[in-house]
Amino acid sequence: MTGLVGAERGLGETAFVDALPEFVVVLFAAVTHLADPWFLFGLLAVGYWFASEGAAGSPRRAGATAVAAVTCAYAATALGKAWFAVPRPPGAMPPADVPAWLPALLTGWYEAQVLSDGFGFPSGHATGGAAAYLALALLYDRFWTDRARYLAAGAVAVAVAVSRVVIQVHYLVDVFAGLIVGGGVVVGALWLAGDPRVRRSAVSESAASDPASDPTAELNPEPAFLFAAVVSAGALAVAVAGGHTGEVVEAGIGIATGAGGAVGWRLVDGDEPAVPVRIAVPALAVTGGLWVGAYALAGTLPVTLVATTAAVVAVVALPALAERVQPALGGSRGA
């Protein structure tokens, strides 16, 4: 089965990107941040906590479902990388070819972008980016127009995918597979969450065709979170069997994220107001610290799993916790 994707899977793209001006490569090294896991989950958390009914009819349900969809995307990536276990392009290996004109202050940053270890298929950035931006475009359906949202989502997802090829940490086939998997995972996650636009029943089709209906009103992201945990468990089994240490950690984090999301959602009703900034800021500091600690202690898997689970439970449960904390702080609902 692993022979379906070979180590030598380039299509001539390396010669093309080698001919690009250095400033173009540096530019795309910055673009790739738009699908870094920390950036995507930060973006999704902000949307989940702060979105109003001007963005989605049920902003908390829409936001949590977007988080669940991206969690599924990373679970699928972990499974794919552990299963195929093929290397990245040679350009991802040190030493990095740093442009001489780049300020010394940016040298470390540039090297961190263009050097990457681990397996290469499918691209996690392409998968996560496609899933995140498509999910945002579909779920925050009152923001902008449909056309504008889909064009923006597609443009960012493709730009990220191209960036991974330009900085030579992935081949074209890696990012193409990532875009396909990311888009497919979103459809599956929305189906699991009960989105009437992808469910095939007389009731759901009637609701989806009614312009006055709110497709986010009955979303339940818990099944999607649990599915991500199950897929991550499969990735863990494959990684352990193959002796892939890095993928074991990633799969473990996927299990913790999926389970933490499901537990956190059990604590909310789904109709909570936006989280007040004075509660969100310290919560972001705490959850961010837990997340950074989880990766910093990746060599101690049990600690990583506990820290990740706690961080995700806190992120997802925060709208409900904020409602309970508000009276003690002298605030009012919706402040």
UniProtKB/TrEMBL annotation:
Residues spanning the signal sequence: none
Keywords on record: Membrane, Transmembrane, Transmembrane helix
The Phosphatidic acid phosphatase type 2/haloperoxidase domain, residue ranges: 65-190
Residue spans crossing the bilayer: 23-50, 62-84, 119-138, 175-194, 224-242, 248-268, 275-297, 303-322
Alphabetized Pfam families for the sequence: PAP2
Protein's name in the database: Membrane-associated phospholipid phosphatase
Organism: Halorubrum sodomense
